[in-house]
Amino acid sequence: MAGALLTGCSDDNDADTASVTTTVPPATQTTMAPTTSAENDEDKVTPQAAQQLCDMISPEIDNWRDQGSTVAKVTFNGTVQNWAARNDGLNDEVLRDKTLVDTVTTRTCPEVRQQALEVLEVDDLASALVGDR
Q1: Taking the domains of the chain in order of start, what are their residue ranges?
Q2: SS (HEC) of the chain
Q3: Binning pLDDT at 50, 70 and 90, where does residue 130 land?
Q4: 27 secondary structure, DSSP code
Q5: Cα separation of the two ends of the chain
Q6: Quick one: pLDDT band at residue 44, thresholds 50, 70, 90?
Q7: Alpha-carbon distance 27 to 58, whole Å?
Q8: 3-state secondary structure of 125
Q9: Helix axes 69-86, 47-57, angle to 10 degrees
């Protein structure tokens, strides 16, 4: 952005008229690198948050079984989004990298993850989440 120069008009006989000069500094540009790596997203999930996800999925498995895999996937999405919202807005991380849910559950509660995979009829939990992968 170029600097601006403002001047007042004056009549040589008018002593009350002033001239003002204003210089605007050029705009600064900040560039931030995106954090799309699963490792960066995993770092945002505390051990307590990871356990909470497992604790939220576990009691739902029987309900999901009764609902059938299609409806269960909708409920599963709600559970994951609810968990993410409760944990410092992890929704963005889940949307950016759906495999985060698999990574967290594999590390924290592999047996719960396995049961969820069977009930949801998917190869990985990321496949059951809405949106592009």
Answers
A1: 38-128
A2: CCCCCCCCCCCCCCCCCCCCCCCCCCCCCCCCCCCCCHHHHHHCCCHHHHHHHHHHHHHHHHHHHHHCHHHHHHHHHHHHHHHHHHCCCCHHHHHHCCHHHHHHHHHHCHHHHHHHHHHHCCCCHHHHCCCCC
A3: confident
A4: P
A5: 40
A6: confident
A7: 52
A8: helix
A9: 150
Q: Tell me: the pLDDT tens digits for 81-102? A: 999 999 988 888 998 999 999 9
Burial grade of 58 (CB within 10 A; 0-12, 13-18, 19 or more): middle
Q: What is the mean pLDDT of residues 59-70?
A: 96
Half-sphere exposure of 69 (CA within 13 A, CB side): 12
> Which one, of 1, 93, 110, lies nearest residue 38 by Cα?
93
Q: Check pLDDT > 50 for residue 46.
A: yes
Distances (CA, A) of 81 to 4, 10, 63, 90, 133: 49, 65, 18, 8, 16
